[in-house]
Amino acid sequence: MKINENYKKLEESYLFSTIAKKVNEYSAQHPDKKIIRLGIGDVTRPLCKSVVEALIKASNEMGTKEGFRGYGPEQGYDFLKEEIQKYYQKRNVELDIDEIFISDGAKSDLGNILDIFSKDNKVLIPDPVYPVYVDTNTMHGREIEFLKADKENNFLPMPENSHADIVYLCSPNNPTGAVYNRKQLETWVEWAKENNAIILFDSAYECFISDTNLPRSIYEIKGAKDCAIEFCSLSKTAGFTGTRLGYTIVPKNLVNEGMSLNKMWLRRQTTKFNGVPYIIQRGAQAVFTPEGQKEIMENINYYKENAKLIANTLKKHNIFFTGGLHSPYIWLECPNKMTSWEFFDFLLENSAVVGTPGAGFGKNGEGYFRLTSFGTYENTYEAMERVDKLLSDILKTVGV
Ligand code: MLT
């Protein structure tokens, strides 16, 4: 037996597992301390009423002879796909029902989609970025070129001269919160067509966009159905981190070497995946009803208030940051030129607040730090009081 040698190139554990381990150690040493977690982007608002009612109704149905269902279609039930189709229509995007695939989340699909691409493809990945893109390509042994995202380009890298076959774009971005505008995405679509490349567009945070001029889907850009696959999720939209449901759009226009990517993905999913439980799909359907939409927006606005609390604390101390406006994430420059892991330890040790070190998102994330607005208002408030005090103390020490 030979192992997949590519695993040797990975960090020992996944970013958020490393953080969880460190926090657990701290917690064991300081059992009296109240730790406030603004690290992993996990939601805290409970599932909304419409979703809960739909889950209960579907569970009851499953307990009856008439309503029981076994294996469903691997790519999802039409009742949910039709709702997603209508959701896109609101933004003038027409999708065929067979272009929509329901899954257990964007994270899995972002990794699994690589099954349909050759290992010889060159991949372009912005840095800093959601670590799943890099780790899953590393596991396959693909050549990766990084695109620098920094203050100069407002954390929104644009195509450079070099050729690549696959590019990952995440907008609103995890971790920086930056959002591509229409013009920028048009440039990316043009680049993809010129290079016969595919854009893997992660729109997991689209529902945080409140500026109607900013695109929420790559398909709002003309020609994108010829060169892009889109990944979305109800995790952040509707608090499905524990109930797992996402959707991926693979347009039928995507044909390469005579093979339809849509058919290849269907083949992959029907072989390796058995579908999301019926009950969960019924819960997801409720998200798209007018009542469900109203309820989820209340939660999103709640998180945006948390983001304002964080932003105000940073502004008070003149700390550079981005995000928080069309995104649940705030991306800040570490004070006192600390490295991102130094700041992680410093914050944990001195204020029992957990964030995510920028270096975990790539080389260019060094010196930066991510805080999420997904906590409760009370905890975010308390965390910001602690951070405010800590920052005042640091600034006093350095005599500012
Ligand atoms: C994050 O904190 O970046 C996300 O919660 C991770 C994820 O969605 O998998």
Which class do the helix and strand fractions yield? alpha/beta
| CATH second-level architecture of the largest domain | 3-Layer(aba) Sandwich
Q: For the largest sheet, list the strands in their spatial order.
A: 2-8-7-6-5-3-4
- Summed up, the helix count is 12
Q: What is the global morphology?
A: globular
Radius of gyration, CA atoms, in whole angstroms:
21 Å
Strand content: 5-15%
Main pleated sheet: 7 strands, mixed
Average residue pLDDT = 96
| Cα separation of the termini | 61 Å
Classify the helix fraction into a percent range.
25-40%
Total E-strand runs: 15
SSE order, one letter for each helix or strand: HEHHEHEHEEHEEHEEEHHHEEHEEEH
Report on the structure:
This protein has 400 residues and is an alpha/beta fold. It folds into two domains: 149 residues, Aspartate Aminotransferase, domain 1; 241 residues, Type I PLP-dependent aspartate aminotransferase-like (Major domain) (Aspartate Aminotransferase, domain 2). The strands form four sheets. The protein has a seven-stranded mixed beta sheet with strand order 2-8-7-6-5-3-4, sandwiched between helices. It has a four-stranded antiparallel beta sheet with strand order 11-12-15-14. Strand 5, helix 6 and strand 6 form a beta-alpha-beta unit. The chain is globular and about 65 Å long. The mean pLDDT is 96. The structure holds D-malate (MLT). D-malate binds next to loops.
